[in-house]
Amino acid sequence: MNRKAKRNPVEITAKNIVRICAVIAIIAVCSITIYMIAEGTPALAKVGVPELLFGTVWQPTAENPSYGILYIILSSIVGTALSVAIGVPIALLTAVFLTDIANKKLAAIVQPAVELLAAIPSVIYGLLGMMILNPLMYKLEKIIFAGSETHQFTGGSNMLSAIIVLAIMILPTVVNVSVSSIKAVSNNLRGASLALGASKMQTIFKVVIPAAKSGILTGVVLGIGRALGEAMAINMVAGGSVNLPLPFNSVRFLTTQLVSEMSYAEGLHREVLFTVGLVLFVFIMIINLVLQRMRKRAVEND
After folding, report:
1. Measured between alpha carbons, how far is 289 from 146 in angstroms, rounded to an integer?
2. 171 Cβ contact list (under 8 Å, min separation 6)
3. Quick one: which of 9, 47, 133, 174 could link to 91 by a disulfide (CB 3.0–4.6 Å)?
4. Sign of dihedral through CA atoms 20, 21, 24, 26?
5. Are 179 and 99 in contact (CB under 8 A)?
6. How far does Cα 133 stand from its chain's mean position?
């Protein structure tokens, strides 16, 4: 009883600290949501939802300004989707290699290397993309569009470069979460599958990965958030023009739109940029809610 009495103040203090942290987190999310709605909705009324969300011309400083962000929205969606489609399979196979295929010595070398990728600042990814990837893309562009009179050459700063950089940037996040999820799968499941005559690869892809799918989905959610919210690296490799999201077009994402113009925007132009931020915020919330529901269903099915 004395021990319990001594522990009670510590436990009470710990619980209160946890409650305070939870309240702070909730207040922070609510405050950001309220602020984005308050700052982002006025421009919708002034410009009009159809013109703003479905317009294709972005000329905020023209004599008759236009604030269409459809191409910017499509660039973000296409760029994020394709980078995830490329990066997630590579990350998942890397996680499988580290957990079930590589020996301990090799895994001890590869795992820190993957974790090091997560520590590299995004501006470094952008710099490497600008100095190495863009020149390669420019050479490819010249080969494909040689003799073309309609194509506008971008010097390699295009959608394809942005997709490749984003795919590389999400690798460490998805790999690390997937490794933890796969390691959490009981060895009894592996042993039972092998005992029934399944091969090692059949066991990995038909037993282990399905058992770890809820955790893997968490990694995918984090990877999508990283890709959708990246600005600096994309601003350095994508070109920065408002165009259709075609592979060799110079494009602008929602994040790079804010980075490029917020420093000098004023008046309605500034209000529209807050609306761009609101659109980005809504996209992230929708994606998180959808994938969290998928993860919940995966857990329930297990």
Report:
1. 45
2. 87, 90, 91, 94, 114, 117
3. 174
4. negative
5. yes
6. 20
Give which of 274, 263, 277 is closest to 42, Cα–Cα. Answer: 274
Amino acid at 240: G
pTM confidence score? 0.86
Token pair for residue 211? Answer: 């058992």
Q: Which residues are registered as beta bridge partners of 66? A: 59
Q: CA 102 to CA 287: how far, in whole Å?
A: 33
Beta bridge partners of 239: 251
Tokens of 133: 């990837």
Structure tokens at 172: 């460490």
Q: In 10 A of CB 226, how many CB atoms?
A: 22
The predicted pLDDT at position 17 comes to 93
Residue 1 has pLDDT above 50, yes or no: no
DSSP states along 112-146: HHHHHHHHS-HHHHHHHIIIIIHHHHHHHHHHHTT
Q: How far is residue 63 CA from its own chain's centroid? A: 36
- Six token digits for residue 250: 């110079």
Report the alpha-carbon distance of residue 69 to residue 262 in Å, rounded.
Answer: 15
Angle between helices 159-183 and 134-144 (to 10 degrees): 130
| pLDDT one-digit tens code per residue, 56-85 | 889 888 888 888 899 999 999 999 999 999
